[in-house]
Amino acid sequence: MSIKIIIADDHQLFIDGIKSILAPEKEICVIAEATNGFELIKCIENGMAPDLIITDIRMPIIDGVTATRALTKNFPEIPVLALSMYDQSADVIEMLDAGAKGYITKNVERTELLTSIKTVICGDYYFSKKLPIKVEDWKKQRTNTETGRLTKRENEILELIAKGRSTLEIAQQLKISKFTIDTHRKNIHKKLNIKSNVGLVNYAIKESNQNHSFDV
After folding, report:
1. Confidence tier at 216 by pLDDT (50, 70, 90)
2. CB-count exposure of residue 143 (10 Å: 0-12, 13-18, 19+)
3. Ramachandran region of residue 99, left (φ > 0), alpha (ψ -120 to 50) or beta?
4. Rounded CA gap, 126 and 144, in Å?
């Protein structure tokens, strides 16, 4: 299954360059492009279901930060990777606070671009090696606030797991890709500190039987 990506940048030449870099990768497919945050949001609202969004932070009409904040709030299952020429700490933190899962600079090498995509897709954070902020420091800070708390989407998936739904059935019901479901499952395992799939199923069933109110 290919990784479906939407690219947002106000310079068409740059979009074309990224598409050219990704073209040889059989497991990656660019399904849409946008030249500003408004177009990016409309792509998702109109039914596009990417596995990842790559966006610039400085764009007209609606900037990348505002678009990321709106998308991660309303479509939290879609991770956002920021790709910008700006490498100041303030810009990085602003995008991360908006909900982005990664931040790379536009002078990034091809190998690091691919690594960042695959890292974020798998549910982890990725910072460009050229940034002044280290991913380990940010992850430690995020862990202190996120551990044990599931998102609304993760709760939905946990409830479907309790009902015995397979990954494919969950993906079809929620109308998102199997790849995205797998990412959510990994995050649930990590947050609940459950190592095995059997353990996760047992936990989900136990919570369901007890009519426990999941966090939102």
Report:
1. very low
2. exposed
3. left
4. 18
Structure tokens at 108: 């990034």
The encoded tokens of residue 110 equal 């091809």
CATH superfamily of 3-141: Response regulator (3.40.50.2300)
Kindly report the number of other CB atoms within 10 A of residue 156's CB atom: 18
| Segments making up each domain of the chain, as ranges | 3-141, 152-209
Mean pLDDT of the chain: 86
Residue pointed to by tokens 């904040």: 69
26 CB neighbour count, 10 Å cutoff: 7
Residue 37 near residue 64 (C-beta atoms within 8 A): yes
Domains 3-141 and 152-209 share a fold: no
State the pLDDT at residue 197: 82
Question: How does pLDDT run across 111-126, given as a tens digit for each residue?
Answer: 999 999 999 998 888 9
Give the predicted TM-score (pTM) of the model. 0.66
User: Residues for the chain: how many in total?
Assistant: 216
- The sign of the dihedral angle between the CA atoms of 84, 145, 123, 125 is positive
CATH number of 152-209: 1.10.10.10
Cβ atoms within 10 A of the Cβ of 28, count?
20
Which residue, 76, 71, 75, 77, is CA-closest to 55? Answer: 71
H and E: helices and strands count for the chain: 10, 6
